[in-house]
Amino acid sequence: MSASASRPGVRRAGSADPDGVLAVQILSAMMLPVLVLNAENGFRHANPAAEEFLGISVVQLKQINLADLLPADHPLFMLISHVRQAGVTVSDHDLNLQSPRLAKRGISVQASPLPEEEGAVIMVFQDTSGVRALDRQLAFRGAVRSVSGMAAILAHEVKNPLSGIRGAAQLLEASVGPSDRELATLIQDEVDRIRDLVDRMEMFDEKPIECRPVNIHRVLEHVRKLAQSGFAANIRFTEVYDPSLPPVSANRDQLVQVLLNLVKNAAEAISASDNPHGEIILSTAYQHGVRLALPGSRTRVDLPLLVIVRDNGPGIAEDILPHLFEPFVTSKSFGSGLGLALVAKIIGDHGGLAEVQSRPGRTEFHLHLPMALDDDPSS
Fold first, then answer.
1. How much is the pTM?
2. What's the CA gap between 260 and 239, in Å, rounded?
3. pLDDT, tens digit, 9 for 90 and up, residues 353-369
4. What span, in angstroms and rounded, lies between the C-alpha atoms of 238 and 333?
5. Integer Cα distance of 154 and 197 in angstroms
6. What is the SS3 assignment for 232?
7. Which domains does the chain have, with CATH numbers?
8. Helix spans in the chain (H)
């Protein structure tokens, strides 16, 4: 927590603006969530961004207290108390606003005293989870490059000898007795498994991708049909699509691969939990999104298209969650831990961002993607 002897830049009510109308208009125009508390921590004002942030209308907020949203021992109350006692602006970072009514992680807040009213505090919130997710994914990209380099070495040094080993095992299988034939088959199976792993690692190469306008709903529908005809035959699917969503700039085949991977993970999580009411929800939305500077460039891009894959499985362990997109990290007792690393790489190659949110009974993968500049009717 940091403090500085500064005052909020809110206009004092005076003869020119006796009701503070201008101040309210300024706060309402701000893109960041802004809340004003009275001396009893009741909500006096909330701008539209704060209503969206909390999921509660300003009319409802004015009927409750901050203590109705957060537990009494939450660090935010200590921050507010410090503001009132010292009369200075106080900021804190990486707060979790967790309660039955709220589920916000990685929140930064700046609180300042409001000169016009004794004990009143103005708070500005900022969700920095997307920025941290981007930082993590940039680190993951470095790890992915290491996997790519390792795959190149393995392809050269391992795949050729593997072919020789498999060929020798096939010759042995044809010339040995029944008891040894089983061992020869085992050798071939293990050689195939190692070769498949090397093939999967080779998918992390840095080849440029060819993007074009893609109808994301057609991709999702294709993935749903594949899932329901196979590994997710007994799981209910719900689709919540924004019908006005513009095309995404993407490689269709790679998007299918990403979404099929996410849906397969969701289906496996539901099956492992023995949930008789297992459900996978596929949804899309248009949002103003996170505006990001591309690594190594001053160019900034908008990611307004949001695709969400949600399941009601058991959730992901908290110790694994921050590292989920790293290579070789998995919560499964089987698998190589490369699937979600590949998801992060493909979405990153598209100039997008992949995030995950999870708690027991609800896991969501968010894909933030760029909009295609020119619609192509053939997509």
1. 0.54
2. 15
3. 888 888 889 999 999 89
4. 28
5. 10
6. coil
7. 2-127 (3.30.450.20), 132-202 (1.10.287), 212-369 (3.30.565.10)
8. 21-29, 48-54, 58-61, 75-86, 129-157, 159-175, 178-202, 216-228, 252-273, 339-349
